[in-house]
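Example 3.2
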Amino acid sequence: MKAYDVKKGNVVEYNNTVYQVRDIERSSPQGRGGNVKFRFTMYSVPGGNKFDLSLGGDDELKEVELSRRQATFSYKDGDAFVFLDDEDYTPYTLDADVVGDGAGYIVDDLTGCYVQIIDDQPVALQLPQTVAIEVVETPPELKGGTATKRPKPAKLSTGIEIMVPEYIANGERVLVNTTSGEFSGRAD
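Structure, written as tokens:
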């Protein structure tokens, strides 16, 4: 596949490593005979390590077949996470290092996940945009302290900490953005 055919989301192989393309910058030099250059921002699959690559428009990249299967979190097996395919209940086991920071957003029966598969091997996990998680520990609201909204730290049932508004109490379920790790509202 030529560099000018690559689109965001494509999965390509470069130097024996598989990458997913997240961003593309195109630059056209002024003047005659200038070649168009493409700068790709890519992340390794699995692993998620960032890699920047600049290529000419006619340079070749090998496209890799990646399938995405919708799955539901089933259980934790040691350090590994097991997801079941929503259609045929195939179990996909993903190691903790593949899940990475996403582990803090995985709750029982989490739906809306996508397991990314290359050559029948699960290689990456795509979480839903927001996840509902229970607050297990947060300081009480200060009555009449101030009229401004101040965030306070809250520890969630999965072990991660986020900042929440003052009115959130222990035992409440909150929506957490899985991309930014920020509070997105009440869940219930």
